[in-house]
Design a protein that fits this description.
CATH topology of the largest domain: BirA Bifunctional Protein, domain 2
Shape: globular
Strand order of the largest sheet: 1-5-6-12-9-8-7-22-25-21-20
CATH class of the largest domain: Alpha Beta
Strand content: 25-35%
Largest sheet: 11 strands, mixed
Number of helices: 13
CATH architecture of the largest domain: 2-Layer Sandwich
Structural class: alpha+beta
Length: 465
């Protein structure tokens, strides 16, 4: 996977925002090895079983000439190395060396890195063999502290998703068969894409003492007794770029939330000859300097001028496809009128705006766009979410409305269920999964939609990526 500059700039903006949020909650960044000895993974049986089919394995440490030409692997390793699919085991082994006393706790560390999971069916930004992400790994003296950390970080992810990505999410717990391998509990944020499928956008795991026992992370408590620590891990990845694309795009291309857009405003100078070119360029450079004196969401407006030698329509379409929130076109007539022609990516019609006071007005428009995108996504999710109480209704909801387009189905089904194992055959038949047991508004008992048995909890059911 190659991420071009526009996509990588988007990822950088995500990194900056999230990194600030992590540090505001007391976390520090560090870096850990890419290669993990296979014996480390083997110490936690459920963990290695969960990732075994996705592991890329290094068995040799050099190349040598092959008879007849070419190269072949040489120098077989005494122990194979796994290219990290996630880092719980190697970070846990490191923490075991760092932790001796309760005074060493908590450890609150995040790393920005790449990981490799050998996906057989790749989908750009959603499931790729290599992807970029962050992974937080923390160690605590008590289960209460670790659970609090797990919940704190899923709330950070939800805050980022809704207030930066303009993407509404449902916070909840995974069922046991959907949990992270080796976790006691997995919290998730689930978002609905425009094709009504669910996307798991971020997870936070309470690992209990499973990994501390496997990696021997022990400490002396205040009474001098030796205890196993309590650990968590949590992460999001470049999958968030895929989430943005599928939440906000339209038939013309990408639609970017202004808070994350690498470029919030692009100015397109329009001229016919060298004389008008000089006048227009002088005008737009002054305009750019003026706009950069204003702020949106606590940061200076990101404003660029596109003066490439190409047709105006082609240039405009380039920025429409890339999702730039605001386009400003300036020609000789605009100079005379002291105005500009403005296009919003979230609306089809453009309009004229006076230059005087434009900075404040454009900052206000960006705020309106951010809210509009969130409101649209909320409305779309609400329209395609339904409370379902019977198997018949469940089947109908997840049956494609159009056989020529089997991807389009109902959306999110909210159902009481008695046992996730009992409903699995039906879910497998319909290619539906339990996305989560929602954290909020989930205290009303009911009856299982499949068996009719009493059920204390509801779950979100959906097809997913």
């Amino acid at each position: 996977m190659v991420i071009k500059p526009w996509g990588y700039a988007l990822w950088e903006n995500m990194q900056r925002a999230l990194d600030d949020m992590f540090k505001a909650t007391g976390h520090q960044n560090a870096y850990f090895p890419l290669f993990i000895p296979m014996s480390f993974l083997e110490k936690e049986a459920e963990h290695v079983e969960g990732f075994a089919k996705e592991c890329a394995v290094v068995t040799h440490h050099r190349l040598e000439p092959k008879p007849g030409g070419g190269l072949q692997p040489a120098g077989e390793l005494d122990e194979p190395l796994i290219i990290r699919p996630t880092s719980e085991t190697i970070i846990g082994a490191t923490y075991a060396k760092w932790v001796q006393s309760y005074r060493d706790l908590p450890i609150l560390i995040n790393q920005w890195a790449n990981v490799v999971r050998w996906e057989m069916r790749t989908r750009m930004f959603l499931r790729t063999a290599e992807f970029l992400w962050q992974e937080g790994h923390t160690v605590h003296a008590t289960s209460e502290e670790a659970i609090e950390e797990t919940e704190r970080m899923i709330d950070v992810y939800a805050d980022f998703a809704e207030n930066w990505m303009a993407m509404p999410v449902t916070i909840g717990s995974k069922t046991p068969d959907e949990r992270f391998p080796g976790a006691v509990d997995t919290l998730t944020i689930e978002a609905m894409m425009q094709d009504r499928k669910a996307l798991q956008a971020g997870t936070s795991h309470f690992l209990g003492q499973n990994f501390s026992r496997a990696q021997e992370i022990q400490f002396q408590d205040t009474e001098g007794n030796l205890q196993f620590a309590w650990t968590t891990s949590w992460g999001v990845s470049t999958r968030l770029i895929g989430a943005l694309i599928m939440t906000h795009s339209d038939d013309d291309g990408f639609v970017l939330p202004p808070r994350l857009a690498p470029m919030q405003i692009v100015i397109l100078p329009i001229y016919r000859d060298d004389e008008s070119r000089a006048a227009v360029l002088a005008y737009v450079k002054e305009l750019q300097a003026e706009l950069r004196k204003h702020t949106f969401a606590g940061a200076v407006l990101r404003v660029d001028i596109d003066d490439r030698d190409m047709r105006g329509g082609e240039k405009k379409w380039h920025h429409v496809k890339r999702g730039v929130p605001i386009r400003i076109e300036v020609g000789p007539k605009d100079l005379e009128a002291g105005s500009m022609f403005v296009g919003r990516r979230d609306q089809p019609k453009s309009f004229s705006l006076p230059r005087e006071g434009a900075g404040e007005q454009l900052a206000t428009i960006l705020a309106e766009m951010q809210q509009t995108l969130f409101d649209r996504a909320c409305a779309m999710r609400k329209e395609h979410t339904r409370t379902i109480t019977t198997e018949k209704e469940f089947r109908k909801f997840f049956t494609p409305k159009n056989e020529e387009n089997p991807e389009i189905h109902g959306g999110f089904a909210i159902c009481h269920f008695a046992d996730s194992e009992v409903v699995q055959p039906l879910l497998k038949e319909l290619k539906v999964t339990i996305r989560c047991i929602p954290r909020d508004n989930n205290d009303t008992p009911g009856t299982c939609f499949l068996t009719g048995q009493p059920a204390a909890k509801q779950a979100v059911f959906a097809k997913s990526y």
